[in-house]
Amino acid sequence: MDEQNKESKRVILQKIRSATKSDEYSHKDNILRSRMKKNKSTEIKYVSNLDVFISKLEQAKATVSVVSHKRDIITEVHKYVSQHQISSVITVAQHTDFPSLDWEGVDTTTQYNPKALSTSVTFAVMGIEETGALVMLSSPSSPTGMNFLPDHHFIVLDADKVVKTMEDVWAQLSKSGEPLPRTINLITGPSRTADIEYEIQIGAHGPKSLHVIIVKNH
Questions:
Q1: Residue 192 near residue 202 (C-beta atoms within 8 A)
Q2: pTM surpassing 0.90?
């Protein structure tokens, strides 16, 4: 009986092996492989949507203004501090675009003093549409403290620097060929915490207001 079972099993396995090696299966396999080579996945080029990015910022309790030229940055800062009765000296990061701006009418300094830092203006290298986050690179001219120590924070962003995802940020930074700084911060809205009785507190660990100025043209 055992011998008969073994023989039956051998015959079945032999039929399976023969079937998988048949010309019909090999031919079908070759057709599929040929189709797979011809129909490669298409890379979808995505154009970032500035409106979506702004919506994400506003959901995070940031305020936003869009201007057409970098000289309009001063107008927006002056308008905001007047409306919110901010009387402190504004510390401006030493970004390459900022020295050419005439800050007349606004009390500013470029000297970084952590103990006397109430309002700051800094520059984001990118914005992430997916989350509304602003990408900040630390440098001697724009210390990380300028992002977190003041009560009021202005961030300037070029509209064409909005990318879709976090992965795009790393790709762009790698493509630039520049060494990464010591610190990279992602800022989404003003500071907040729910440590106290699970109620959201704005400004507990950083700026209580964030105003983003997006520059569309240069």
A1: yes
A2: no
Rounded Cα distance, 163 and 140, in Å: 26
Residue 203 pLDDT: 44
| pLDDT number for residue 140 | 87
Q: How far apart are CA 92 and CA 98, in angstroms?
A: 8
- Give the separation between CA 74 and CA 106, rounded to whole angstroms: 8
Structural domain spans, the chain: 3-39, 51-215
Report residues of the chain scoring pLDDT below 70: 1-4, 17-26, 38-48, 97, 99, 191-206, 218
CATH number of 51-215: 3.40.50.10420
Structure tokens at 105: 């009418």
Task: Tell the residue number behind the tokens 């606004």, with chain if given.
Answer: 106
Contacts of 43 (CB under 8 A, 6+ apart): none
- Both tokens of 167, joined, read 């992965």
Query: Contact at 8 Å (CB) between 48 and 163?
Result: yes
Rounded CA-CA distance 158/67 in Å is 10
What's the token pair of residue 177? 């060929």
Backbone angles phi, psi at 107, to 5 degrees: -80, 105
How do beta strands 192-193 and 201-202 pair?
A: antiparallel
Q: What percent of the chain has pLDDT over 70?
A: 78
Distances from the Cα of 167 to the Cαs of 138, 143, 158, 164, 173, in angstroms?
Answer: 20, 24, 19, 8, 10
